[in-house]
Design goal:
The chain contains no helices and 10 strands. The chain has 108 residues and is mainly β. The protein has a domain of 75 residues. A hairpin with a 2-residue loop joins strand 1 and strand 2. This is Large ribosomal subunit protein bL21. Part of the 50S ribosomal subunit. Contacts protein L20.
Length: 108
Amino acid sequence: MYAVFQIGSKQYRVTEGQIINVEKIGVNVGNQVEFNQILLLKCNDCLQIGYPFIKEGKVIAEIVEQNVNRKIEIIKFRRRKHFRKFQGHRQCFTKIKIKSINSYNLNN
C-alpha cells in the first residue's frame, strides 16, 4: 500500500514505515502530524484517485528529527572584471516516519 500526498507545493510517494525528509514543519520532535491532502491511494488491486484530494484519506506520521541540510555554495564570478560574489544557504528540513495510511472508502 502506498499513498501520494502533498505538503505545500511538493508531492511525496510514501509507504508505511518509510522515513522521508520534507520541508520544515513547525512541530516538536516526537509529536504526530496528520496530512489530509492525499492525491492518490493504492492498495493491492484498488486504486483511488482524488479530485483534487481524497476526502476521507489521511497519512499519519511522527516527527523524527528537525535539522538543516549541508551548505550549498553559490558563487558568481565574472572573469577580467574583478567581480566575485560568494554566498551560502542551508535549507531546514523535517525528517518524518510514516506510521499509517488510512482511507475509509478503500476496499481491501
